[in-house]
Amino acid sequence: MGARDTIRTAVANVVPPAGLTRALAVQAMVYAVGSGLFHAGSAVFFTRALGLSAAQVGLGLSIAAGVSLL
């Protein structure tokens, strides 16, 4: 079994079958990547552009997350 067969087997075990299941998995992946980039970018924006300290940004984002859960 070569490297290509190993990779194909691994991908076949991870990727859902074609159709609605695969489309939803791709949508979830795109959403997760976009959300992660947004949150990382917002922390950089708050510290660089607005001049807030890391502690202020952490506290503010924690309070916002807590409020959003309620």
Automatic annotation (TrEMBL):
This is MFS transporter.
